[in-house]
Specification:
The chain is of the alpha/beta class and 405 residues long. The chain folds into two domains: 160 residues, Growth Hormone, Chain: A, CATH 1.20.1250; 182 residues, Rossmann fold. The chain is built from 15 helices and eight strands. The strands form two sheets. Strands 3-2-1-4-5-6 form a six-stranded parallel β-sheet, with helices on both faces.
Length: 405
């Protein structure tokens, strides 16, 4: 009992040292267990098997185990502080180099160097604790140190479970009832709330009515107009009485734009000069540009902006995975025409969802708003569907049906 009471009355400097050493030990165990699942992300980069990739962990642990005792003697000879600093520097440098160089063998070698850095922690920790704490407290101080390491190991899987709940594709999802909300379908198919009646439709609604603040007589241009967001934006603007221009890639998509009432449908893949095509469609200029694409399309439309034009910046899909310049714009026309460009994230505007559904659901039911869905079957098809989305192969809202209804 006396020993445990003394822990509560130990000097503040000793308490800070113990807390710091234990916290570092916790994090070292935490990161060791977090590193292994991350190997799945680099496997494709190296084009190796999981067995080959696991060699990194083997090298790390073998180096750490074999050199632990020699490093302990080194701590006794030159002191814990120097060894600990060198160990931290080696580990940090090793992981940085492994991340920069896209080479399997550099990756393996750096895990060996990180293992060497890891050998410093236990000998240095024990030396620091032994030299700065009286013998009568060492047993439970070492117990704190061990507990901190085990706690780090326990927290890592919990973190991974939390990450899994927020990221990745899955066929099923478990959550407490308080974390979900029962969907009122308003008589629409449930999948509609992944498209025109859900986030994509609300994005179009907010972008035009709250961000662009449509005014009578506005000429509206929508890029990516055959997509889930763009097609709804076109139809909302048209129903509000505006002249609507939409661009999409391919004659089939351009035909769909005409079907939903777009005044001027531009197949950008068939146009050598997109600016000239826009000039023909909007000889009086453009008041609202609903931006989904970026790159060369953005550059083309800037020359046609009217004074005090508004640009709701929804997305720039042409830039997301670009490896070279996509023909970005000269922003001077924004200055000359005193245009307003405003980015927006739909999660900031969920308060508009009830008003949006009240307006949209009747329009869909009576056929005044049309939509397209591009559905593929099976979770195995999801990667190809995602790649197709960025290549413009989808027609309407891209969805993956993970199981039969």
């Amino acid at each position: 009992m006396t020993q445990f009471i003394s822990v509560r009355t130990m000097p503040s400097a000793e308490s800070r040292l113990i807390a710091g050493v234990c916290a570092a030990h916790l994090m070292s165990h935490y990161y060791l267990l977090m590193l292994a699942p991350l190997l799945a992300f680099v496997r494709a980069d190296f084009n190796v098997s999981y067995t080959e990739l696991a060699l990194a962990l083997t090298v790390f642990n073998v180096v750490s185990g074999v050199l632990q005792t020699p490093v302990g003697f080194l701590v006794d000879r030159i002191g814990a502080r120097v060894v600990l600093i060198v160990g931290l520097a080696l580990s940090s440098a090793a992981f940085a180099i492994a991340g920069v160089f896209n080479s399997y063998w550099v990756f393996i070698a750096m895990y060996g160097v990180a293992g060497l850095g890891n050998t410093a922690y236990h000998p240095a920790d024990y030396s620091l604790l032994s030299h700065h704490s009286p013998p009568e407290r060492l047993s439970h101080i070492f117990a704190f140190h061990t507990f901190a390491g085990m706690l780090g190991s326990a927290i890592a899987p919990v973190t991974l479970l939390a990450m899994q709940s927020f990221f990745g594709w899955r066929e099923a999802f478990n959550a407490p009832a308080a974390a979900v909300q029962k969907l009122d379908t308003h008589g629409l198919p449930p999948q509609a709330f992944l498209g025109f009646a859900g986030m994509p439709g609300l994005t179009a609604y907010v972008g035009l009515l709250r961000i662009a603040e449509l005014k009578a007589g506005d000429v509206v241009f929508v890029s990516g107009a055959a997509g889930a967001v763009g097609s709804v934006a076109c139809q909302i603007a048209k129903l509000k009485g505006h002249t609507v221009i939409g661009s999409a890639g391919g004659s089939q998509k351009a035909g769909f734009l005409r079907e939903i009432g777009v005044d001027h449908a531009i197949d950008y893949k068939a146009e050598r000069d997109l600016t000239a095509a826009l000039m023909r469609a909007a000889p009086e200029g453009i008041d609202v540009y609903f931006e989904n694409v970026g790159g060369a399309v953005f550059a083309a439309v800037l020359r046609l902006l009217n004074t005090f034009a508004r640009i709701p910046l929804c997305g720039t899909i042409s830039d997301y995975n670009a490896t070279q310049n996509t023909g970005g714009p000269n922003l001077r026309p924004l200055l000359v025409n005193r245009a307003t460009i405003r980015g927006f994230i739909i999660s900031d505007h969920t308060d508009r969802l009830p008003a949006f559904l009240k307006a949209m659901v009747p329009l869909v039911r009576n056929g005044r708003v049309k939509y397209r869905e591009d559905v593929v079957d099976g979770l195995d098809a999801a990667p190809a569907a995602l790649i197709g989305l960025f290549e413009g192969k989808n027609f309407g809202k891209m969805m993956v049906r993970v199981a039969p209804e």
